Amino acid sequence: RDDDRTWAKTFLSERKLDPDVLIGIHMSGSHPSKSLPAEAVQQLVEALHSLGYQVLAFHSTSSYERDKENLPSDVPVCMPDSLLHTAAVVDRCHALICVDSGIGHIAAALHKKVFSIYFKDVWMKNSLALGDHVAPYLYTQDVPDLLEQLRSFLQ
Prior knowledge:
By secondary structure, the protein is α/β, with parallel strands linked by helices. It has helices spanning 2-14, 38-50, 61-67, 83-92, 102-109, 120-125, 143-154; strands at residues 22-26, 54-58, 77-78, 95-99, 113-119, 134-139. The protein starts with a helix and ends with a helix.
């Protein structure tokens, strides 16, 4: 809807975020075992900044309270109050990097580039057919490999 798109545009503008270089991240799954470790999130954000991207972290109120200490202080947070606002902000991002979560499905439905990080035990249980704009990555604690895969995906 237009009012949701306007809300997203204003939200990003107030934070001086440029949709052309904006990468949304969502690193917390519905269960802590589906969340990326804090040091990996920090390295991910640093790598994205070094590539010239801005970063916006998506959180629900509950995941933010659980994970706020793990988020770099220079990363703005988006906690929309509706699913439509979430979709409108995701639609304005250049790409989304996420763990196995609903926001990744929203981004895929909007035909955004999605780099989805799956954990081995979750991947084995949930085999998915993914479109060519979605790059699945099986997280195995190898952060340098994750960052190299990500660089290739974004270019």
